[in-house]
Amino acid sequence: MITDVEAVRRNVERQAQFVSRLRQEIAKVIVGQQYMTDRMLVALLANGHVLIEGVPGLAKTTAVHTLATAMKCDFHRIQFTPDLLPADLIGTLVYSPKSGDFTTKKGPVFGNIILADEINRAPAKVQSALLESMQERQVTIGDQTFPLPDPFMVLATQNPIEQEGTYPLPEAQVDRFMLKLNVTYPSKAEERQIMDRVDLLHVPTVSPVVTREEILEAREVVNQVYVDDKAKNYIVDLVQATRNPEAYGLKMAQLIEYGASPRATIYLQQAARALAFLQGEGNVFPNDVKQVAMDILRHRVKVTYEAEAENLTSEDIIRKILDTVPVP
């Protein structure tokens, strides 16, 4: 197995050459926000979707647009509003009076990189229209089903729920996002750099430096990254601890309404593989799992009213689990 892991590592080094080019292009526009950039790349390589939450003005939309521009892929931006209809998203059947036939008009969801901007400003009916496309990578219009292009990735931005005019996402849809990122304010040095760099008359130009073929080939290599039994058992322990904390010596069952779904187990392994790929490794270390655990679990653990009364969030619960479950 050592020989196999070494062969995978060499393959990773060869296939990951585009990563530095992609990061350089993104850095032309985005100052700081390294965490957000890295996690978007993890989701891209792991064939997942990303939900990005933060107050307005933190470059969430700009970061997604920059990533898409740096890739030679079809990019569509959908602005979610309260009056948006499902047909505006996936498409509809259009009747032709002359021929008496219906023709299919595909919506903007047919693309490689989809930016669902301010996704929580549209009601649940519209948000749910994304469910089939995100999970099955297909869309049904009328009685026909159309496959979506590959790669297909949804990057959704949302403002915090407590802001006026927003709707909470349905739990079924939230679970389909591999990662949920909480974007914070830049540091003092980064904010000064933003002020110095921004010139409204001369917007930085981002060039496409990655092709669809390179992304698809990299995904094949990510799937070859070796995950040993210790890392797999650690993944299962983390997810099980969100459902049955007492078994791991955590006295907080009354704080958790429900834990993470089996989808979290699958995503933890895939995201850890993608992170190992970005670091040039041919195998997953338990620390790789721990690094991505918060982003995969924070939106899958629902806390009780008792936890809310104590001002405890899902992040507090997950942090306690990460500190308690032993790392192999």
Helix content: 40-55%
Question: Mean pLDDT, nearest integer?
Answer: 86
Rounded Rg: 21 Å
Shape: globular
Residue share in β-strands: 15-25%
* Strand order across the largest sheet: 3-6-9-1-10
Number of strands: 13
String of helices and strands = HHHEHEEHEEEHHEEEHEHEHHEHHEHH
Question: Which runs of at least 5 residues are low in confidence (pLDDT < 50)?
Answer: none
How many helices does DSSP assign? 15
* Terminal residue distance: 19 Å
Q: Which sheet architecture does the biggest sheet show?
A: 5 strands, parallel
- Alpha-beta content class: alpha/beta
Topology, element by element:
Elements (H helix, E strand, L loop, with lengths): L1 H14 L1 H11 L6 H12 L4 E4 L6 H10 L1 E2 L2 E5 L6 H5 E5 L6 E5 L6 E5 L6 H4 L3 H6 L1 E4 L2 E4 L5 E6 L12 H4 L4 E4 L5 H10 L12 E2 H13 L4 H15 L12 E3 L3 H17 L7 H12 L4 E2 L1 H5 L4 H11 L4
Parallel strand pairs: 1-9, 1-10, 2-11, 3-6, 6-9
Antiparallel strand pairs: 4-5, 7-8, 12-13
Helix pairs in contact: 1-10, 3-12, 10-12, 11-12, 11-13, 12-13, 13-15
